[in-house]
Every structure is written in C-alpha cells, then in structure tokens.
Amino acid sequence: MRILLWHVHGSWTTSFVQGGHDYLVPVLPDRGPDGLGRARSWTWPGSVAEVTPTQLADEPPDLVVLQRPHELDLVQRWIGLRAGPDLPAIYLEHNTPVADVPLTRHAMAERTEIPVVHVTHLNALLWDCGTAPSTVIEHGVVDPGLRYTGELPRAAVVTNDPVRRMRYVGADLLPRFTPSTPLDVFGMRVDRLPQALHVDVDRLRPYEDLDQERMHTEIARRRAYLHTTRWTSLGLSLIEAMHLGLPVVVLATTEAARAVPPSAGVLSADVGELVHGLQALVTDHDRARAAGLAARAAALDRYGLKRFLDDWDRLLEQVAR
Length: 321
What we know:
Elements (H helix, E strand, L loop, with lengths): L1 E4 L4 H7 L5 E5 L21 E4 L1 H6 L4 E4 L4 H9 L9 E5 L22 E3 L2 H6 L7 E3 L15 E7 L15 H4 L5 E4 L6 H5 L14 H8 L2 E6 L8 H9 L3 E4 L4 H4 L5 E4 L2 H13 L1 H18 L2 H16 L1
Parallel strand pairs: 1-2, 1-4, 2-3, 4-5, 5-6, 6-7, 8-9, 8-10, 10-11, 11-12
C-alpha cells in the first residue's frame, strides 16, 4: 500500500514507517512544516520516499494519514481528491486537547468517513469526536536495546521547546530537583533554559544537535530519567528511556500511570516525593539498575513495535477497502 503522511512527529513516524508499506513524505523547496521530507535525526528505511505535490497529483497514494486539520486542504489542492470521500483517510491525533477540557470538540467531529486514531486511551476519553469513528492505537517504539550503564550519577531530561512550553512540559519544576540531583537536559531549543529558570548553568547542561542514536547512548549513561511533563498524551521520550533500561521518575499525569509500573522507579503527583525518589535512585546504582530492568520489561510488553504495526495494519486494511 502507498501511504501518504507528512513528517510531523519524528519519533512516532520512525515507528510507523517500519511497516511493510511504501511511505510517501511530502517535500517542498523550503523544507517547511508542510514539506519537511525525510528525517535527518532519525533512521528511516528506504521504503520512505520524498514526493513533491506534482508527483502526488500524477500518481495519487492509496491512503492518507492526516495529522493536522489543514492537511485536508493540502490533499485537495495537491492531488485534486477529497480526503475521505475520494481518497481513503485516517486522522491521527497525537495530542491531548488544550482548552475547554473535557468539552473540546475535535476538528474531525462528525466526519464519519474519516476515523480518528488516538495514541492513548486518555486522549480518546477527553476529545469529543461526535459521530466520527474513533479508536486507540497505543504507541510502539523501535527497541534501541538495553544500553543502560548509569555510570554518571546524574539524571537525564528530554524536552523540546521547554521555554515556550514551560508549564506544559514541567520545565518550571526542574529547579526543585537541581539542589540535590544534577540534571542533563537533552532536546530541541533548550539553550535558553538555564537563563529562563535562573538556575545554576553547570547543573543544567543542554545538548543540541544530537541524532536519536547518539542521544540514546548518552541518556543511557545517566543514572535515571526524569519526566516532568504536566500535560501531553504520552511522551515518547519516556517510553524510549524505559526501553533503554533507565529507571524513571515521572509526574503522575495523563497516561503515565498506565505506562509506568511502581517497580520502574517513582510515579507521583507530589513533586517532593519525586525529588527524594530521584535522589535515592541516583545515589544507589544497584537499586537504579533493578528499576531500569523493570521499566524495560514494562515498555517491551505494552509498547512493542510488532503490536503497534499489527494494530495499524488491521486498521489500514479496513479503511482502504
């Protein structure tokens, strides 16, 4: 099957394109949000091809996976077909609603010909999709392997755009941890974080421009993983850290309670408990290693790649009929 999708969410797409289909990713001269093309920070297989709007018009795909409302218009302008009535379509919802929860109306509500796929059960619960068909396909992750060494008595944090998304990702909570545990912060646009939080720059060490492979290796050298996100569907960086074998210290919000068993580290809405729990893991390497193995086992069980791809294949075949 030839599947059209935009490069919107690199980590999620990395898992999706591991399937047995041909994946068409739009590319534009400016490589902006609507034409980013193939990933540069993730490893994608050869079955992912960059296509221009002209190429799509000449040879339409078999199905489109939409991820943003305006992609409906892009499909019609570029291909001359309506997503849903003319071209089989699925709408993938990555995010939790950001306003009027739990009354938020989904952009695809009442589009009965386009099923909405949520990445977590919480998302499906919170979004009002009206009469649009709605289902859940939980995340799956390409297993990076057990890489944990924990050789550095520090904690890793992965966050993107933490200054702009301050309270969403819980970046404002990081100064609560730095007096007792050194933090290394990985991710996009983290360079202004120390200044924004007025904390010791030596204890917040931003890492930029790392591809996923190098970042995984670096994270696995840290003693534990800290996840302070207040409001998201489920951070894939958390699931990846668990796959790597890191013990995790996680704010008990959104879908985290489903993803993180007690044996994997510390899960609480009490930030004080998280501060003390992180410190305990960082100072006790044996305890941290045992919790990391439990985290990896839980992640492989619930967020394995095969289950993820099988779930998607069933839906793709159903919609493409």
